[in-house]
Amino acid sequence: MKIAVWDTYVARPDGLQMHFDILVPAALENENQIYAFGKQYLASKPFKTGSLNSKKCNFCHVENATPEVTTAIHTMGFYILEMENCT
């Protein structure tokens, strides 16, 4: 499965910046839907976060999905790859 990687940064109230990728099927081009996936992920966090917007969430590239990512996308429609300050 080909996936689109959306590089995302969101501020935390403690001054740290979260960095994560939103992974979606490559054919999904609706930015509002992709931002909604990011907001859903942020709402699951036990701490407050800044807002997600188009200046902080951008298409990066397309790549092949791993089996884990493919399963998550078939189940939830997206996958979040946590990179920095996400916990």
UniProtKB/TrEMBL annotation:
Pfam families listed in its UniProt record: DUF2024 (PF09630)
Protein known as: DUF2024 family protein
Biological source species: Aequorivita flava
Upper lineage: Bacteria, Pseudomonadati, Bacteroidota, Flavobacteriia, Flavobacteriales
